[in-house]
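Students often ask why we bother encoding 3D structure as a string. The short answer is that it lets us treat folding as translation between two languages. Here is a chain of 325 residues written in the first language.
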Amino acid sequence: MTLPPPDPKFDLRGASGEISCLHFSCNVDKPCPPLLFSGSSSGQIHVWNLNTRRAETVLNGHNGKSVYWIHTLHNRDSLMSQGRDLQICKWNLSQGRNEVTDSIAVDSVGFCKCSLLNKEHCLLAMPGRESSQVQVLDLASKKIMSSMDPAADRFGMAMCMKLWQPKSGSSPLLIVGYEDGSVALWNVLEHRMMSRLVCHKEPVISLDFDCMSDRGVSGSAEKILSAWILDEQQNLKNYKVQELVNPGIADITIRQDKKILATGGWDYRVRVFGWKKMKPLAVLQYHSASVHCVSFSDHIIPEERLLAAGSKDQRISLWSIYPQS
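And here it is in the second language, the structure alphabet:
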């Protein structure tokens, strides 16, 4: 007999707007507490202490405009955030500070979130001035090292992206989801599109990519999840289509162990799937409005892995589900 899905381990309340993005910072030694960063539609970033389950700090740096992407750099003392004020802010959070030390102007007025390659030399993929254009910035020099724009604008707006370094150690690669329902693979250093696959009839709203197995997954306003794979020639090919009960996938994230993935849906639900075969595993029901974002924690101890979901209802739910083994 199938066990019923669990209740949340706990929830976090007190954000002053819809929860639009989440990012964990738990991979630290004691006594430093595990943290969860959340961005909201009110322009605030909350820094949640997961031991006390309270906000330690509230950051204001986007002039009251929605924050829809956040990510730490080399450690939790340095944070980046992207907002609807067309700014990417860099924060210094060391020794109790909460100051913006730098900012990067963004020309795009869309909702395409940045993607960070957090290596020795940090690279930031961000939407460009033209609707379908994406650029990769070297954060140390603040110079644009690559600008990628389809020859024709038939793809529509860039909607979401994922930047990563392949196992071969060659040029960074970038997957971009577009308004026309396609995903495209770009060679960053050569500014060259390597492959493209139409996998949705609606704009690609969310995607994630597993560089260990060279497989990715994307969602849209449709009632499907589309999984795709890179072959040895770096061509994108369909892998599997998973039917859903209700339409609308706002966010997708693959857990670090590459065993499960989670989606946040317009139907107020979080869904969990096995990553290898896209098998549905659980439907988590708690929120009273659309789930905008999902994120897995980066705990040192696998058994402490958490799944966080942020919603339009201004709440964040935390779940302990399928602990990593």
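Translate back mentally: The mean pLDDT is 92. Keep this in mind for the problem set.
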